[in-house]
Amino acid sequence: MSATPFDKAAVLVEALPYIRRFAGQVVVVKYGGNALAGASEDDALQLFAEDIVLMRQVGMRPVVVHGGGPQISDLMQRLGKVTEFRNGLRVTDSETVDIVRMVLIGQVNPQLVAAINVHGSLAVGVSGEDAGLIRATARDPELGFVGDVESINPTILQALLDDEFVPVVATIGTDELGQAYNINADTVAGAIAEALGAEKLVYLTDIEGLRRVVSDPDSLIRQTTPDELDALMSDGTIAGGMIPKVESCVHAVRNGVRRAHILDGRIPHVLLLEIFTDEGIGTMVR
């Protein structure tokens, strides 16, 4: 059953106070390498781009940060190179870091930029290598060119935001000698949100949010605090690939970001549902 004109008007009225509250505020959105909504990757990209454009048009200042793990693995397989992971991190030799740069800067970033720019000349793609945006250090010699964020220089992002563009950031960082490093995109998103003093940090994932009991959908955590998340990580409730996201949420909220959100990106227009409705969706950290 389609929405009536009265339903549509009610939605707009409900959104109005949120539009006012978040006008001029920075929102950092981490978009995963997987297609997170719709029936295909193209559908997912289109829905995501529509959300980002609407946020921009009502006065918010979105920054998109992306990874590309599945695409990197796919290209490595096609090139006949075996992917090795240690504790969830991709071992990255000199050849692999070149492949990572090719995928993130040459494939995923332009796809996101193009999807947003269907709606106008809004998005600009940048890499952590540009203008010293992401300074990296090696995490572990055994992992090769896998980096940690040493610092964020947000100058280029501020300039783009001030000129009313939407920055789309590929998460390659460099050290003081210019060596490129592959960096976890969840960690980068949190660090960028802190550097920009963002109002919100949003992670789009393939789960509905965090649960107190992993196997129980009814235990979804709607709102939580950094202290509670510390406890859930300590007791093993939060584990695996969710740890970088949750650690970044906790660190960001403790360092100036007002709210962090973990959302199910498979839900069409999930960003709008979380930001512009009373009920919201997913898990919010405050």
What would your notes on this structure say?
The chain is an alpha/beta fold. It has a domain at 24-71 and 98-131 and 163-171 and 183-285: 3-Layer(aba) Sandwich (Carbamate kinase). Helices cover 41% and strands 22% of the residues. The protein has helices spanning 5-22, 41-57, 69-78, 94-117, 155-162, 185-196, 226-234, 242-254, 270-276; strands at residues 26-31, 61-66, 85-86, 89-90, 123-127, 134-138, 146-152, 166-170, 172-174, 180-183, 200-205, 223-224, 259-264, 283-285. The strands form 3 sheets. An 8-stranded mixed β-sheet has the order 5-8-2-1-11-13-14-12, sandwiched between helices. The chain has a 4-stranded mixed β-sheet with strand order 6-7-10-9. Strands 3-4 form a two-stranded antiparallel sheet. A hairpin with a 7-residue loop joins strand 6 and strand 7 (146-152).
Based on secondary structure, the structural category is alpha/beta
Which stretches are low in confidence, meaning pLDDT under 50 for 5 or more residues running? 35-39
What summary fits the major beta sheet? 8 strands, mixed
Distance between the termini: 36 Å
- Within CATH, the superfamily of the domain at 24-71 and 98-131 and 163-171 and 183-285 carries the name Acetylglutamate kinase-like
Strand ordering within the main sheet? 5-8-2-1-11-13-14-12
Average pLDDT confidence is: 91
CATH class of the domain at 24-71 and 98-131 and 163-171 and 183-285: Alpha Beta
The counted number of beta strands is: 14
Q: What is the count of DSSP helices, taking H or I runs of 4+ residues?
A: 9
* Content of β-strand: 15-25%
**Shape label:** globular
The string of secondary-structure elements, in order, is HEHEHEEHEEEHEEEHEEHHEHE
Cα Rg: 19 Å
Tell me roughly what share of residues is in helical segments. Answer: 40-55%
CATH topology descriptor of the domain at 24-71 and 98-131 and 163-171 and 183-285: Carbamate kinase
CATH architecture of the domain at 24-71 and 98-131 and 163-171 and 183-285: 3-Layer(aba) Sandwich
